[in-house]
Design brief:
The protein is of the alpha/beta class. It has twelve helices and twelve strands. Bound molecules: magnesium ion (MG).
Amino acid sequence: MTYSLDTRRYSLPFRSPLRTAHGRWSLRQGILVRLRSSDGTTGYGEVAPIPGFGRETLDADEEQLKLLGAMPTAEVLASVPVDYACVRGALAGALRAFAGTGSTPKAMRDLLPVTALLPAGRDVLGAIPGKVELGFRNFKWKVGVGDPADEQALLDDVLAALPSGAKLRLDANGAWDRRQSERWLDRCAERPIEHVEQPISPESRGAIDSLMGLAGDYPTPVALDESLVGQVDIEAWLGRGWPGVYVVKPGILGDPAHSLDLLHRAKARVVFSSSLETGVGARDALSWAFSWPGEARALGFGVWPLFQDERFDGPFLAPFWRWSEVSSLDPEPLWNALS
Ligand code: MG
């Protein structure tokens, strides 16, 4: 079969710039992909590499898409090199619209809780009451942005502001060294912290040994996020017997089916997470989360409303999502909005 392939590049300002240990991020860039067959079937996918997350760049991805030509066959679509995981993932996602093509995740869960993303620094305290009122019980706070002593002092205020039984994740985005990580994990040990995400950057010297050491030495689980750029990393950490949590962003995994199968067979603890993509990629990423057969954890997708142009947002932010709501997201209006 031959497809017609079209792409539309986007450049979408966030409603407010994101502050993380990686710095400020104010503009999301990516590419929407559309595949059509001669019988009129249409599938959409999204290429949205995360700057600073692995080596894939949007410009290189765009070049790869051009190499496929306007009328690629299934064999040509399957020929994208593994280094272009976001392109492979977008094409695999678009191909799922065609019966019998690609790997089709089967949604098995009806309902999943959603984690509300809390802003870094003191802004966190102002953001909590509104989220609690909406019914959220799962939260993620970005740390590693300001002075570590100030943030540690804030931790108890944050916990006090949350309702009892709430779960709090901390995400350091690799900002700490070993000693700072130990201080944080000491502090977390007696507190209801669900996990500490990526305390140490994968780029720092001895990162693998440090992360393994931290995961073994403290009761609070440690989660890997930036350390998991693709299938190769997931295989490597499974091989090391990583005892902590795996934060999986389906949008940057190429075709997630293989990685998720390995993780499931290893009985790994998996949290599904947003790449801050538009509703097109988010719908596809969430389909993997809803079809995950392992233990269900709150979705790391509590990022919306995200874009100044709200047409590109994913599902309306709520403490729980039903698969029926997520699967009803229609990519076509988003595609048309880029014309
Ligand atoms: Mg993270």
